[in-house]
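Action item from last meeting closed. Structure (415 res):
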């Protein structure tokens, strides 16, 4: 592109037009692109924030990778943990006993997931100790039959720290009267809150030695080993690489499989919202078509004069492409700035709106996530900016082509 084409294109953009409606449409197009990009970047950042928040809460209780036996119980778990720890991505390992059961207090009975743990090792693979709202995880002592329950389960059972509850194992014992379930009285030593209803209402933690006694397992038998990784997003690849490292016949699964439905739903919602908001940018970008078509009509005498002075149709086309592209560049730049600023301060903006209008968008009594999380990612911002600029550039092609086809003789006939 030559200097005079760029100069004239920029001059046309800055010049005061005889038809002020064209300038108004140009301003609307620019504002449309800016607002569309701001909204899209903010929504994508908020969706990323929700995804990160849900992932953090789930993986605070669950594990990045779980190694379990194909036969049901894993023997010699220290060897499995040692072999898995040889992988450079594995940060920590802890055994567990996982089983189903029921808890009973008076006439109230609830089905639960029982997890037997070693508190010292469990704290290295999960954030349960940080989630304790009452008591500590290391108060689970073998032989004392202590139990840690979630806040929702404690509320349903009406228990607090120090109360006693009965844990019932479905593995029955044969008696002359028939098969009776095994049961044991436990003392509540702590209450945790993961911020995830599934865990807060149906997960109980006991010492692994107590779990082995309740479920009739040998001292060296566990359900599996839980692993924590340095980079949780490498879990699927690490699973494949762990298979040849572990000598026993095991089943290895990662968090992306165990909780796929949660993250798949969030990802689909993010894509649909992004597509809908991208249509705003598309509408604003194609407003540039009408702006440039009217500008071509308004500048036909100028085009004719440039053609008579020796300007080629390609040069005329480039002049109007510059004019439309400049609107797109300014709109994209303002949209990126506005989107990034709003994405990083969306919590403060929402809090201000709630105070001014006396409303609450995420009530603490209803939602576990009571604040709007935001996680702006450079890849999303760059993608939005590139798509927006590409749409505006595409919108300039047809009007610019029409300008290049203006006949000088026809344009100057009535001048």
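Sequence:
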């Amino acid at each position: 592109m030559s200097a005079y084409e760029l100069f004239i294109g920029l001059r046309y953009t800055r010049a005061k037009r005889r038809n002020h409606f064209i300038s108004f449409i140009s301003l609307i197009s620019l504002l449309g692109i800016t607002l569309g990009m701001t909204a899209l970047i903010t929504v994508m950042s908020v969706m990323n924030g929700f995804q990160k928040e849900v992932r953090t809460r789930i993986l605070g209780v669950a594990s990045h990778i779980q190694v379990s036996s194909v036969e049901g119980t894993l023997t010699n778990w220290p060897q499995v943990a040692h072999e898995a720890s040889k992988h450079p991505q594995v940060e920590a390992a802890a055994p567990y006993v996982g089983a189903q059961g029921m808890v009973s207090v008076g006439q109230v009975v609830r089905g639960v997931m029982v997890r037997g743990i070693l508190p010292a090792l469990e704290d290295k693979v999960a954030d349960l100790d940080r989630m304790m709202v009452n008591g500590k995880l290391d108060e689970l002592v073998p032989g004392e039959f202590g139990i840690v329950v979630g806040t929702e389960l404690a509320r349903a059972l009406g228990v607090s720290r120090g109360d006693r509850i009965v844990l019932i194992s479905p593995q029955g014992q044969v008696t002359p009267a028939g098969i009776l379930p095994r049961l044991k009285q436990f003392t509540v030593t702590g209450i945790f809150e993961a911020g995830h209803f599934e865990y807060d209402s149906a997960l109980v933690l006991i010492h692994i030695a107590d779990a082995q006694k309740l479920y009739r397992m040998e001292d060296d038998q566990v359900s599996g080993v839980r692993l924590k990784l340095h980079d949780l997003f490498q879990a699927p690849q690490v699973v494949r690489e762990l298979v040849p490292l572990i000598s026993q016949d095991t089943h290895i699964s990662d968090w992306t499989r165990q909780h796929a439905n949660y993250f798949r739903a969030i990802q689909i919602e993010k894509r649909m919202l992004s597509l809908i908001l991208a249509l705003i940018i598309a509408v604003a970008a194609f407003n540039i078509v009408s702006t440039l078509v009217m500008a071509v009509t308004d500048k036909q005498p100028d085009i004719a004069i440039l053609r008579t002075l020796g300007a080629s149709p390609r040069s005329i086309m480039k002049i109007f492409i510059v004019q439309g592209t400049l609107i797109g560049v300014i709109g994209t730049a303002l949209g990126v700035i506005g989107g990034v600023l709003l994405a990083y301060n969306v919590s403060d903006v929402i809090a201000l709106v709630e105070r001014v209008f006396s409303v609450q968008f995420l009530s603490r009594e209803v939602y576990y996530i009571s604040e709007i999380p935001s996680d702006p990612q450079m890849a999303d911002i760059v993608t939005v900016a590139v798509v927006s600029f590409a749409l505006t550039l595409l919108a300039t092609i047809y009007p610019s082509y029409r300008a290049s086809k203006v006949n000088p003789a026809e344009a100057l006939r009535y001048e």
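Note appended to the action item: The mean pLDDT is 83.
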